[in-house]
Amino acid sequence: MPLLPPLIPHLKSPDLFGNLDRLPALGTPVCERTFVVLNPSTGELLAELPDMGVEETRAAIDKAYMAQPGWAALTARERSDILWRWHQLIVDHTDDLGAILTAEMGKPLAEAKSEISHAAAYLQWYAEEANRIYGETISAPSTDRRMLVIKQPIGVVGTITPWNFPASMVARKISPALAAGCTIVLKPAEQTPLVAGAMFALAHQAGFPEGVVNLVYASEGDAVGRELCGNPKVRKISFTGSTEVGRLLMRQCSDQIKKVSLELGGNAPFIVFDDADVDAAVDGAIQAKFRNAGQTCVSANRLYVQSGVHDEFVDKFVKRVRQLQVGDGFDPAVAIGPLIDQHALAKIESHIADAVEKGGIVRCGGKRIGTRGTFFQPTVLTGISSEMTVAQEETFGPLAAIINFDDADQVVHEANDTIYGLAAYFYASNLKRVWRVAEALEYGMVGINTGRMSSEAAPFGGVKQSGIGREGSRHGLEDYLEMKYLCMGGI
Known about the structure:
By secondary structure, the chain is an alpha/beta fold. It is 40% helix and 20% strand. The protein folds into two domains: 5-265 and 466-486, Aldehyde Dehydrogenase, Chain A, domain 1, CATH 3.40.605; 268-417 and 423-455, Aldehyde Dehydrogenase, Chain A, domain 2. The strands form five sheets. Strands 12-15-16-11-10-17-18 form a seven-stranded mixed β-sheet, sandwiched between helices. Strands 7-6-5-8-9-19 form a six-stranded mixed β-sheet, with helices on both faces. It has a three-stranded antiparallel β-sheet with strand order 3-4-20, with no helix packed on it. β3 and β4 form a beta hairpin. α3 (76-92) packs antiparallel against α6 (168-180), α8 (222-230) runs parallel beside α9 and α10 crosses α11. The longest helix has 21 residues, at 109-129.
């Protein structure tokens, strides 16, 4: 069954859907098994796609393996030119890609278009970085030899992307790999595969040679993941998702000592000190907590507010949260769309119930909205203590849990008291405090007086059990290159 354009409003170029039927030309094998993609706002069927497994994944890997030497042999400028063309096609189709993304994932249309622009920015960045892969020369210990270092593409890369940012994660992962000279086999999340398919159709138009970019649709990731990790033709795995699955993939890659890049779970603290600009902190907290309905890996999960500004912050924050409109992402007045599925609804409800049972107070929200779709009221809890589940686990939903604190040193200790270390935020004006807290927080990324920090020019990634490696920036390119030392004698 093809995609159903009538269920995706505002499309300007329905021919994008026809392009998806040509995915076998991108290396995707034909498969008779199928699975369905649903709109989380309405529950309506959007598409029925081939449900691929080990056989199809292996065929895609073989295509990527055959194509890799030729892709790597192109000049950096030639690879850059194709990435530039893909970037421009993404820009030209921003409206349609945003509409597809909103239909399958639910986020507000303006937010979806912003994500498409962010994806295009990664393609632009690495189209430029493709020309900046530098080696080095080393002073030799004797006059009859020369020593130098070159960098070469690692080879075939297996990538697995999440449902919460189904466009930007595709671009952020594969654009540096392609710039480096690697070929790709990508499995998008089963909940949100359509925008990835549309982007790959545009990649085909951009002129990538056959076998360079390969898409694998699958309703379950286990079989595909095992093949990507176990197949010796795949030299690297790049994954964004839960820490639990990241551990599994590391184990599956360990027998081959396969290189991995992992961007995993978080439990981000958001700290507001007494000397902070409270209004700015409220703005930042709204952005860090409720963007994408709280379904981001860097979403503020624990909001620590110092006692001197606690009540003021809570009052202003709750007032703002009450104004957030929830509904279908195609409604221009909507700020928060649906959660991805029923499991997400059940998780946020369990976190609220646990907190209330242990003394937490619901200041606003706390309930599902309607019986159609997966909508939930944006919720604020106060009276939160460390033994509550919401203070220990990532909620991944529109739930803000506020913790009152007194001691500035103690709050940094509590913020670090987690296995995760992806992102942290804090608001303060004292420069001495800013430096000390920024350096003391055990996180790969720290937002200071801002609730949003992702950029293609900056390294994205975590420490501890939040991941390995970095995406974005010039550092993101290094993860797809191998360093080779050449020693030339008899000179």
